[in-house]
Each structure stands twice: as structure tokens, then as C-alpha cells.
């Protein structure tokens, strides 16, 4: 068996385009909107992007195109973590290129941004493209985390691009990669190199979102895959009636995925990092709250439950955030010395001696496993690897401790048996849902139209996602308009502002209006596996987050 | 949102019955086959089941029924771990009962076998039943692990049964529960109590399987759910090209689930417990083999891979099996003394001092986490809780160790970064696949016909599963014919023989013919999420195991 029955069937799926893009390419024309401004720090951002700042918002309408006929040679890269639908961005881009002119060429640069520097590429053909239609993963050309940000890198990219006669580069990535796309676009514009740069909004985390980008691709499929599993575990918990399940879900920093899973599954508890930070809740506050819920359910005869924990939670807890910051600095400054320590006890003593008094107290209080994880190797930026910290086990250990104390005091009479889970890699490469398959194909197809119309420094934008694809609108937005200035790794830089969960937003507001009921009662809902076929209301639904945000 | 769109849609699904069962109930007649014998120890089993041994195999044919008209009051229980489709056994049984006579009654006893003892029950109505059609979980009445095996228990059950006027009890469970069903049937038959007992073959583990039971229900859905996730992780591994994923899958003892997942996903490595035992492979043999595969792939530029590890593996490794046996005895005999020990170091020293020389060596060599897990609380039978032992982490730690040594010797130049996963609870309560929905509904419907025809001590049997439901055959098989005598917890007992993976069987033979290729090359297949709708070849396929066993 070389391909699965579902993969075979998915090859035949025809992604739905917005009506406006279904016309002949010659009948899709650009319509200019108002000039744009960055979301903050306008003067500073403008100064950094003299050639690409303040460009106009654009949309596509059905009218004779004014795009000049020109053979296109486009390069595309996949950047950063996998997200379902990446292959469809490429197939949409390819189909539009070939529909416009059979002589157009699409080159895929391999292994992420480094492929552009190392000139490692493949020229796409029908035969290659057809093997990846509507499939998950980024394996068509691979991905990578190299950041394109220095002038030296840009010079190499320019050389490589010219050697292939590239007219444009499409960067499929998250907020950082799109920030870099904007900087590269500015570089090419300043040098009048004739190479355009277009970005596409990717990330399962859902934190590349703003007034124009209604959602990043991959969020829909990944959140639904995690929700499938959480729903199954909820049903298991309600059947066996003897376990609590603490489920950590991916989503680097923002808690969008956790919140979406909560909206889909109605668990007893879902922690939201942004709320923890806003309310300044300490680790003990959180542990105390969970223990209260466990105790209340237990008193009602329900010695089981499900709690969703966002991967990024730990960095939102004030005293842990401080601790992690100190540890990052400490391990960077004393890397050699620390590296020579023989065992955990020596490392523990060393760290304790170098932390501030308060952080030392916090660190000493944590379970040993978590202490070890906090001292593990940093990522290339010197940050702790959050996904490797078993927050779900930390909370289980501490809630167990607290309930044991309460039991000793006669304040708790129930039982508490908990299991931890972590869902991340399970959802990043699933077959894209119909929504993501359609959305991504449209983003790629639309990216071609932005190129054909001579635009650069734009993000491919598809809007109106709350309803079906036929009514979606297509257009482009200057990336600079999503930027502000932030301090990153010690420097002030122009970056796309990350979208965290808004505590005033509709998804969180709805959640917080329901959660007390969900804590006490057992209101689980079971979304089941993503369906690609069947009734529309099952296979074509989008996320609850998007539905609530779009007021449906 | 109280129920999900998929659950709503699944309510409308009409499970497919075998053609023979689609007729009017009055036109389904019993056909007797040959008398049966137990699979081994015939004289001993016969002596223990004087009233129910040697009964005839039966099948159903379309002919006027000779069943006597009689109002039925049936009790049903769900026993042991959850398996997708349990609700459909109950709905099939209910529908058949009501179709035969609107006055028939179905009582669901709650929380597993203990419900029969505590007389905790619910009388099913259309309203209740309709909320559970084609759904996962056992939450309709809950499940439990109490074993019905003593005469005292049987006496209570008899009293409860008579108080409700029960004519039959249907026990939905695995090999142990069905063994107990046979003993209960014999007890009732000996006492001429007029209460029949029928079993239904449940377990995701797939180890309740023999010449007549082609598969236990739940295996199909659970294995497909795990395969969905494994396929997604494979695609992630092939996209990121930098991680090895070690994935442990549930399935208490037999490796059927691991093997099925391997057949569906074609990973680089899949360990099979039964083979490890047959070949007497030591832990170091296994670690060495995995290290070889990692090194060979790395030399070919592929610093990534996926390995599937059956939950029960650890008990198949000869020296670990001996160690666990010694630990079980030791912790049973010295429970109090061990319980008073203060910390890990005291426990470690205590255990080391009491183990045989060889087991002490094995124990000392294991990583500390695994040592702790091996000393954790036993299950109610005094056995180590295998699912709590992180075999995937054990192997990661030991392979890392070995490759580090090889690197120091210049024998390995690649990189090895591994992550562990465990899939179990994610699959036990999924919405049953179409196969399991149809199979379970048929098992329940068929159970009624066995009852109506006055049979007891029979298992509900549906065969011909390699093809579609229309051609399935229906009938019953005396449970005693699946039995032999085994030593369990120190006593010789009649039990249903557990079906382990047969190393001469077609599924394993196919796997072993392919695995060298899968080790070296990257031949991943991506099954994707279970589909309940769409092309037949996607939504109505059964497991690869069943397809290979049935020669298709």
C-alpha cells in the first residue's frame, strides 16, 4: 500500500475558490482601497520601510484586468512549524500560474528559508503537484526555521533569485516569517531589483490574526484534531468515572487553540494564559482553583474531569515568568560553568545560588521533574523550550499535593487520580479540513494575482470566512500595516503584532459565561474526527472561534 | 451547544444488518451445527461445565422460527474497558426486543457487573436509546471492572434477576468477562433458574479472537484512531526531518493494535511483543536493533523516524518479565515494610537487596524513572500497571545512551532527537467506525435471537466480516468451546484462551516481509481521520489485519 484510501480520495477534491476568483484570470482586476498605516509606531515603521510603507489596501473585482502580460518565475518557501494546508497554498499558486500562462514557472525552495540561500530547489510539475493536493504536511519541499533577516542573507537571496530569473517570492509562514517577508520586500524595492515578495498567513497557533486576517491557516484543522481527541477522552472520563485528564495543547504562546478546544468540547476546566497574566494569578492560585473544582465535583459524586492547559500557560504565570527570565539569563551567562556540573544536585544548588530570593523560593517549590525541564537546553534564541515543560504533570503533582493536605485536614473526602496528555504533533500535519483546503488554495491562487498586478510587501488576504467560500472576498494588505515596534532579544524591531486571546472578545466572553456551569455539571460535547464528506453542517463548518468572532 | 454536529448526524445513521437478520423476526430460524469441544483440556472443562459443555454451534437461516413466544425481560451490562460500539450493541439488542414484542423490556445495569449485584439499573426507553445511537463511550450505563466469579455473587445476581423477572442477561465484555458469563450460565443452568446468559465479544486489544470470532468490536475504531495520529506524526517527522517519534499504543498484552497500526502507517519500526518473546530478545537486543536502524537512516541523511511500541512489550522481554514477576511477589509479601520506606533511595536499596542477582542487575541498569514506575502501586490483582510504565521513554533513554557511546567510538555521526507519545484513552471512546457501528448493532440484534431461541452460555457471533454486512452470517457459539485450563493468580481455571499475534499468521508475515524496506526507506502512509461518510472504499473499509486474515 503506497497511499491510503483517504489520500487517494482527497486527490479528487476540488477546493472551492471565492466566486470572484472563479472568473477568467483576465477578468479579475485590482481595486484600490485607502492607504494604510501601521497599527502603532507609525513614524518609526515608516522610516524603516520608506519604499513599502503606506501602500493601499487592495481587493479584487470582476472587471478586465490591467495586469501587464509577463512571464512569471515564482519561488515559494514554507517557513517554520507545519500547519495543515501548506500544500494547498502551493497547489493554488501553481494552478493560477499555469492557468494564466503555461510558460509560467514555480520553483519550490527546500527546507525553509535556508533553501533560498543554499539554492536548493525543485521545479514543480503537474506530476509533483498532483501528489500533494489536499494533503497534510510540508513534505513537498520541507520547512525550516532559519530566519531571513540580515543584509548578507538578502544579498545571497537576490543573487539566487536573479540566477533563476525570479519575478517573485512567496513566503508561507507565521508572524516572524511575514515580518521578514516585509523586510525583504523593502530591500528589493529599495534596490529596484524587480523581485516582488508576497506573504501567506500560516500558523496553527492562531496568533497571526488582525483586522484583515480573520484566521491563519492550519488553526482550523489542528484545533479540530485536538478537539476530536479531547472529546474522546471526555467520553472515556464520563464512562469510567474515575480519572481526571489534564490535557496540554500546543500553541506556543497565545491560548487560542486551548480556547477553541474548550468551545468545541466543553471541558470542566480550561486555563487561558492571557487571563492568568491579566489577573496576575500565581501558580498557587491556579492549583487552588483546580483543587476547588475537583473537590466540588467529587462532593457531587463525580470523581472525574477534564482540564485543558495551553502550552504557553507557564510563561503567563507572573512568578514563573520572572523565574524563566532569570534562568534564561543565568544559563546564557554561565553556560560553560553550568555545563561542567556533574549531576542534578549540583545543578540545582548552582541555580538556587544564582537566582533572586523570590525566584529561588519558586524554583525550590516546584517538583523535581519540572526543575530539570527548566534547566534543559535552551532553544537557538536562548529561551526555555516551553513545549518540553510538562505543565500538565506540574499541575497534577501540585493539585495532588494540595488535595492530600486537604484530606489530612478533613476538607476533602473524594479521590483524585489524574493522567496527563500532550497534543501537538498529532495535529500539525493532518489532512486539511475542507475549510483549510479551500482557504489555503484560495490564498495561493490569490497570491498569484497579487504578483500579476505588480504588488510587493503584501500579504495574501481572503476575508468573509464566517460564511461559505462562494462569498469570500479576495485581496491584499501591505504587511507593514500590521506592524509595530517591539523589543525582541534586546533590540527594538518592527514586527507584526502577535494576536493574543482578547479577554473582551466574543470567544472568551462566551467561554467565561459558560465555564462555571461546565465546571460543576458534565456538559461534554464530542466533536469526533474531522469529516471531509457528508452533511455540509458537519464537513464544512469552521471553528467556533471564527463563528463567534464573525457574529454567527 | 449540547451535542456536536457529527453526533447529530450520526443519530440518523442506520446500521447495516446481515441480510439474514433483515427479515421479519418470525422468519429467522435456528440451524444446528455440530456439537463443540473446548480448544484444549476437554475433559477438565467438561467436568466444570456439566450443563453447558458440548452444545452445538448454531447459525440463523431464513425459515419460520420455532422460538416460543414469550415476553422477554433482559438485563445488559458493559464490563471492563471502553470500546467504540458498546452503545450500538445495546441499541441493536433493544431494537430487536421491541421489534419482536413491544412489551419486551431491556434493563441496563449500571457501572459494570457491580450494577447486577447492587441492583442499580435503568429501564431503557426510546428516548434514552435514541440519544446513544452510533455514539462512542460506555456512558449510557457506565462500565466497571468488578469480576463476577464467586458463588456468593451469583446468588445475589440470581436474586436481583428474579426480582425483575429477568429471562436473560447479556454481558458485553472481553475474554475474562465472557469466561465469567459462561460460569454464570452454568450456575443458572445447574439451578434450572430459567435465566439465560449471552456474551458479546468486546475489546479494543483484539485478543478475543478465534476460529469463530473474527474480531472483537472496538478494535477497528481504536486502531484507526491511533493510526490517524501516527500517520499525522509520520508526516510531521518527514516534513521537519529532525525528530524520531517513539509511539506507545494501548493493547494490554497482545500486540494486535501495534501491528494493525504498522500495517496502516508503514513506520520505520514496529516492535511486536510476541516476536520478542519467541526469539528471546533482551532489552539490549531491542535497543541495539533500534540504534542500528537510527544509524543507518542517519547515514542516508534521514535523521528522523517513527517507531511503534506495544504497551505490553515490557512483559514480553524475558529478563524484564522475570524482574516484574519478582517485584510483584516481593511487593506483595513485603507490602507493609515497603510502604514504610521514606524515599526512592531507601526503596531502591530495599528492592535491590531482595531481588535475585540477575534481576537486581537488570533493575539497577534501568533509568530511574522506570525504576520508580516499576515500584508503583500494583493493580487489584497485585500486577504492575503496564500502561503506566513509560516504555517509550525507556527506549528513548537507552537508545540515546547507546548512540552516545557509539558516537564517542566514532561509530555514529548523526543526530538523534526523540519524542515519546502514548495513545490509549484517545481511541477507546471514539464514534464507532461504520464497521464497528454495523458489527455491534448486529451483535446486539443477534443476541436477542439467541435469547428468543432459548440458548444460554453462548457468545453472539457474526462472521464473514471480510466482506460487507449484507453477506455477513449470524449465529452463536458455546463459550465453553473457546476455553482451556490456565494457571491464573496461582489457581488452575477454565478461561477463554487469549489470542496473541501469531507469528505464522498473515498479518505478521506480511509485516515482516516489508519491514526491512520500511526501516531504510521512508514509506509512510497516512490513513487520516476515520470517515463516516464519502466513498465506500474510504468509509466502509475494515482493518488491514482482518483483510489479510480473510485473504483479501
From TrEMBL, chains A, B:
InterPro entries linked: ATP_PFK, PfpB_PPi_PFK, Phosphofructokinase_dom, PKF_sf
Binding-site list for Mg(2+): 175
Pathway: Carbohydrate degradation; glycolysis; D-glyceraldehyde 3-phosphate and glycerone phosphate from D-glucose: step 3/4
Catalytic activity: beta-D-fructose 6-phosphate + diphosphate = beta-D-fructose 1,6-bisphosphate + phosphate + H(+)
Binding residue positions for diphosphate: 81
Recorded name of the encoding gene: pfp
Site entry (Important for catalytic activity and substrate specificity), positions: 176
Native source species: Candidatus Aphodenecus pullistercoris
Sequence ranges assigned to domain Phosphofructokinase in this UniProt record: 74-314
Identification of the protein by name: Pyrophosphate--fructose 6-phosphate 1-phosphotransferase
Amino acid at each position: 500500500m503506497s497511499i491510503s484510501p483517504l489520500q487517494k480520495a482527497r486527490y479528487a477534491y476540488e477546493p472551492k475558490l471565492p466566486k470572484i476568483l472563479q472568473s477568467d484570470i483576465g477578468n479579475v482586476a485590482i481595486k484600490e482601497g485607502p492607504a494604510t498605516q501601521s497599527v502603532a509606531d507609525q513614524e518609526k515603521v515608516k522610516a524603516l520601510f520608506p519604499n513599502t510603507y503606506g501602500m493601499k489596501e487592495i481587493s479584487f473585482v470582476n472587471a478586465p484586468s490591467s495586469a501587464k502580460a509577463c512571464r512569471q518565475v515564482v519561488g515559494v518557501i514554507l517557513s517554520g512549524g507545519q500547519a495543515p494546508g501548506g500544500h494547498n497554498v502551493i497547489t493554488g499558486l501553481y494552478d493560477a500560474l499555469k492557468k494564466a500562462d503555461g510558460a509560467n514557472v514555480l520553483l519550490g525552495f527546500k527546507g525553509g528559508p535556508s533553501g533560498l540561500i543554499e539554492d536548493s530547489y525543485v521545479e514543480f510539475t503537474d506530476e509533483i503537484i498532483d501528489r500533494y493536493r489536499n494533503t497534510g504536511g510540508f513534505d513537498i519541499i520541507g520547512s525550516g526555521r532559519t530566519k531571513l533577516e540580515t543584509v548578507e542573507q538578502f544579498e545571497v537571496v537576490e543573487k539566487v533569485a536573479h540566477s533563476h530569473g525570479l519575478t517573485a517570492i512567496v513566503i508561507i509562514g507565521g508572524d516572524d516569517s511575514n515580518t521578514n517577508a516585509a523586510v525583504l520586500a523593502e530591500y528589493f524595492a529599495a534596490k529596484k531589483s524587480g523581485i516582488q515578495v508576497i506573504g501567506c498567513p500560516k500558523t496553527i497557533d492562531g496568533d497571526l490574526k488582525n483586522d484583515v486576517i480573520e484566521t491563519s491557516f492550519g488553526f482550523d484543522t489542528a484545533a479540530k484534531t485536538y478537539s476530536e481527541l479531547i472529546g474522546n477522552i471526555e467520553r472515556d472520563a464520563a464512562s469510567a468515572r474515575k480519572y481526571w485528564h489534564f490535557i496540554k495543547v500546543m500553541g506556543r504562546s497565545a491560548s487560542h487553540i486551548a480556547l477553541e478546544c474548550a468551545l468545541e468540547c466543553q471541558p470542566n476546566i480550561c486555563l487561558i494564559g492571557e487571563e492568568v497574566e491579566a489577573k496576575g494569578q500565581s501558580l498557587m492560585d491556579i492549583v487552588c482553583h483546580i483543587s476547588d473544582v475537583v473537590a466540588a465535583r467529587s462532593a457531587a459524586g463525580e470523581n472525574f474531569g477534564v482540564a485543558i492547559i495551553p502550552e504557553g500557560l507557564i510563561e503567563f504565570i507572573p512568578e514563573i515568568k520572572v523565574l524563566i527570565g532569570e534562568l534564561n539569563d543565568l544559563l546564557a551567562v554561565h553556560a560553560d560553568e553550568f555545563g561542567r556540573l556533574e549531576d542534578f544536585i549540583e545543578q540545582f544548588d548552582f541555580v538556587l545560588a544564582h537566582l533572586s530570593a523570590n525566584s529561588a523560593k519558586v524554583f525550590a517549590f516546584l517538583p523535581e521533574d519540572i526543575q530539570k525541564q527548566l534547566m534543559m537546553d535552551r532553544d537557538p534564541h536562548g529561551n526555555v523550550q516551553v513545549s518540553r515543560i510538562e505543565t500538565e504533570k506540574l499541575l497534577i503533582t501540585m493539585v495532588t499535593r494540595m488535595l492530600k493536605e486537604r484530606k489530612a485536614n478533613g476538607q476533602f473526602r473524594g479521590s483524585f487520580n489524574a493522567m496527563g496528555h500532550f497534543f501537538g504533533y498529532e495535529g500539525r500535519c493532518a489532512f486539511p479540513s475542507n475549510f483549510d483546503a479551500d482557504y489555503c488554495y484560495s490564498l495561493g491562487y490569490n497570491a498569484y494575482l497579487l504578483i500579476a498586478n505588480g504588488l510587493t510587501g503584501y500579504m495574501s488576504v481572503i476575508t468573509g470566512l464566517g460564511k461559505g467560500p462562494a462569498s469570500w472576498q479576495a485581496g491584499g494588505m501591505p504587511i507593514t500595516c500590521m506592524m509595530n515596534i517591539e523589543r525582541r532579544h534586546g533590540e527594538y524591531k518592527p514586527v507584526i503584532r502577535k494576536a493574543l486571546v482578547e479577554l473582551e472578545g466574543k470567544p472568551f466572553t462566551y467561554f467565561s459565561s459558560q465555564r462555571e456551569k461546565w465546571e460543576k455539571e458534565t456538559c461534554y460535547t464530542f466533536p469526533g474526527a474531522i469529516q471531509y464528506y457528508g452533511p455540509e453542517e458537519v464537513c464544512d463548518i469552521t471553528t467556533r472561534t471564527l463563528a463567534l468572532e464573525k457574529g454567527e
